[in-house]
Automatic annotation (TrEMBL):
<keyword id="KW-0176">Collagen</keyword>
<dbReference type="GO" id="GO:0005581">
    <property type="term" value="C:collagen trimer"/>
</dbReference>
<feature type="domain" description="C1q">
    <location>
        <begin position="111"/>
        <end position="251"/>
    </location>
</feature>
<dbReference type="InterPro" id="IPR050392">
    <property type="entry name" value="Collagen/C1q_domain"/>
</dbReference>
<dbReference type="GO" id="GO:0005576">
    <property type="term" value="C:extracellular region"/>
</dbReference>
<dbReference type="Pfam" id="PF00386">
    <property type="entry name" value="C1q"/>
</dbReference>
<keyword id="KW-0964">Secreted</keyword>
<dbReference type="InterPro" id="IPR001073">
    <property type="entry name" value="C1q_dom"/>
</dbReference>
<protein>
    <submittedName>
        <fullName>C1q and TNF related 8</fullName>
    </submittedName>
</protein>
<feature type="signal peptide">
    <location>
        <begin position="1"/>
        <end position="18"/>
    </location>
</feature>
<dbReference type="InterPro" id="IPR008160">
    <property type="entry name" value="Collagen"/>
</dbReference>
<dbReference type="Pfam" id="PF01391">
    <property type="entry name" value="Collagen"/>
</dbReference>
<keyword id="KW-0732">Signal</keyword>
<feature type="region of interest" description="Disordered">
    <location>
        <begin position="36"/>
        <end position="107"/>
    </location>
</feature>
<dbReference type="InterPro" id="IPR008983">
    <property type="entry name" value="Tumour_necrosis_fac-like_dom"/>
</dbReference>
Amino acid sequence: MAAPGLLLLLGLPGGAWPSLGPPRRPCVQCCPPAWPPATPGPYARRSDGEPWVQPPRMRPTIDVSILKGEKGETGVRGPSGRSGQEGPPGSRGLRGRKGQKGQAGLPGAACRRAYAAFSVGRREGLHGTDGLRAVPFDTELVNLDGAFDLASGRFLCAVPGVYFLSLNVHTWNYKETYLHIMCNREATAVLYAQPSERSVMQTQSLLLPLAAGDTIWVRLFHRDRDNAIYGEPGDLYITFSGHLVKPAAELR
């Protein structure tokens, strides 16, 4: 009976009965390891059978803060460098706050306005048989600063600027009416009416720039026909007026 039992034990694998084999002793390194360790080849394997992995290379670092000394004294200021090139203009800044109200200034001189005006008339009729002639006037309605001379029928401009001028006459039956509003020696406007059996009122007006020293007057023009303007002592049919609209100083 013992023999079959022994054969049965011998037929089993050795790992099935660990306690039956010789005792295992732990592996003890008998020699110190080599330093630095040899770099394994690309196909080397560790003792456990896994592929060898190259360890990362470590580089020593130094903490500079440990070696930093105490702060030194401030050195002498160096010379100023050259001025650099002018840069481009910057963007516009924000609008500042409104300042305080300033003190009132001294009162200025009184404002002086320029005035000029005239309005004159003629009560007697006039014929143009003597050729070119200035129409004299015998009635003064408005004459500021005496700028209009009735005898010569001329207005002398003392305040330069733009003036409004107006001429009114009454025509004569069957006679021609032909007059010019003159500036110095130049005709600026004409008042004309053909001969007719009926007499009518005729008007001419205009705006004219005048310079200081210019003269304005009315000329009675004579041609082949009889030229005349009607008038009566009791009524005022013929009038000539003008006034300053705006002085030249305000036109700039």
